[in-house]
Write a structure and sequence with these properties.
Layout (H helix, E strand, L loop, with lengths): L7 E4 L2 E7 L3 H8 L2 E5 L3 E10 L19 E14 L6 E6 L5
Antiparallel strand pairs: 1-2, 2-5, 3-4, 4-5, 5-6
């Protein structure tokens, strides 16, 4: 398991993340595309793939920041989102977007 804080941006139902080129995440995604992303109010489970930004026609602010240099763009296709309780443990809602597989 690896944990990192990375810049991200949502566009439609996809979440885009910047991963440093020297990150072990890149190696791990080559073997298993399953990811779990955490935020203060939710947990997202999905599948990630690496993209070549030059071949995309996306309006992402991520691609125009200083953080973008030395990074690889990843696209996360969400499968399930858990909405966390504001207080205590657990979830108040689980939303299945695509079957986990």
């Amino acid at each position: 398991m690896q944990v990192s804080e990375v810049p991200c941006e949502a566009l439609g139902l996809h979440l885009y993340v910047l991963l440093p080129r020297t990150s072990d995440h890149l190696f791990n995604l080559g073997h298993d595309p399953s990811v779990t992303l955490l935020a203060a109010g939710w947990v997202l489970k999905g599948k990630a793939r690496l993209l070549l930004p030059d071949t995309l026609n996306l309006e992402l602010g991520l691609l125009h920041t200083a953080e973008e240099e030395g990074c690889v763009l990843g696209q996360v296709d969400p499968c399930r989102v858990h909405i966390r309780k504001e207080q205590g443990w657990g979830f108040v809602e689980t939303i299945d977007l695509n079957p986990l597989g």
